[in-house]
Amino acid sequence: MALPPPLRTSVTPQELELIASEQLVEILPLITMEKTAFISGAYGPLRPPAKCRIPLWMAVNLKVKKKCHIIPPDWLNVEFLQERLSRETSYPEFSQMPFRFAEIAKAILDVAPDDIQNADKVRSLLKDLREARQAKSREGLAKLDHSELSLPNSCSMEINELRPFFIHAMGVLTQLSREGEDRAAAQP
């Protein structure tokens, strides 16, 4: 199946969420289950009240069936996110966040808001953090230097959003470079 032009140079947010679903998260199981083998590895055994690390996709599946509580990652709390938002608005560089924080946070907040303290505040802080980071990206694009490109501490979603622009921009720069070389070669 051929993809429409806007999707040919970029991965969709849903695909990024699928990729992020392989990340391991901690759960508090509400059921007992023996160790189970999957293509990506073997997980378990699940024995309440012992915590267990399993992939996000499995945790989401168990949570939807009310068979576990998801323990949010250390960074998915109000204090951490407020501190990172403060850094984003105070310093020119991106603050360090987990590479797939946006996708993981969305997946957990969608199915397990009851497992996160102040879920609405966390959701609001994530939105503010994302907007602050997007503003930095736009500002950085205005100052783009053709000789060097560096995106330290950018997350996967941000890189994915910028990818189509860079592919187009690099194509234009290549075309201009070739035209310049052709003109130089044509002159005596």
UniProtKB/TrEMBL annotation:
Entry GO CC: GINS complex
Keyword Zinc found: no
UniProt keyword list: Chromosome partition, DNA replication, Nucleus
Claim: tRNA processing is one of the keywords in the record: no
Protein's cellular compartments: Nucleus
Residue span(s) of domain GINS subunit: 75-172
Alphabetized PANTHER family for the sequence: DNA REPLICATION COMPLEX GINS PROTEIN PSF2
Homology family: Belongs to the GINS2/PSF2 family.
Protein name (record): DNA replication complex GINS protein PSF2
